Model the fold of this input.
Amino acid sequence: KNQVEQSPQSLIILEGKNCTLQCNYTVSPFSNLRWYKQDTGRGPVSLTIMTFSENTKSNGRYTATLDADTKQSSLHITASQLSDSASYICVVSDWSNAGNMLTFGGGTRLMVKP
Amino acid sequence: AAGVIQSPRHLIKEKRETATLKCYPIPRHDTVYWYQQGPGQDPQFLISFYEKMQSDKGSIPDRFSAQQFSDYHSELNMSSLELGDSALYFCASSLGPRTQGGNEQFFGPGTRLTVL
Done:
């Protein structure tokens, strides 16, 4: 069964600090991995998308890494801001189906405090 | 830039009623996905359409049905509503079906359905 596990489940940091969120997956065959930011009651917003051959991808203060061998990904947030408070969801896609089957992680709930 | 549009944004229904949710994908996107997110839960994939044909099916109850129209918008029809159907329903769109390269899914703001 395809699974995506994220850690930690929740995280509180002070404004300006850095943090790293983890994602481990067992989805196979792997197609790509996405990190989404989801504010409460809103739709997920894509931060990064990485395929098998990509190790690192940055989007502003967000940097995602992917190790396809160990099936691990991380999302590093630099110089956190209050607006970074949200859930961060790791989503892995497999391509065994004609459609687009995504497996969602449980998310990490980040709270940035002043 | 145009985003995915969903309507209505909020909907309140009573048990056993029906509801129709609408999704308008980003222009030129031909693939639409529906997700259900219960309170405090992960989004669950329901169903997807590519070029007006169902392309994949997830955990969509038999009481629900969906279709994609010629203008690529999609509607999720929900009948015999139950209290447990109360959730956020997200629609996402992408350009083309999934490929090895990966197709970015862009999510709409969601429709919050409350069943009383």
Observations:
- The interface with chain B takes residues 31-32, 34, 36, 41-46, 49, 51, 89, 93, 95, 97-102, 104-107 of chain A (CB under 8 Å).
- The longest strand of chain A covers residues 30-38.
- Chain A has a mean pLDDT of 88.
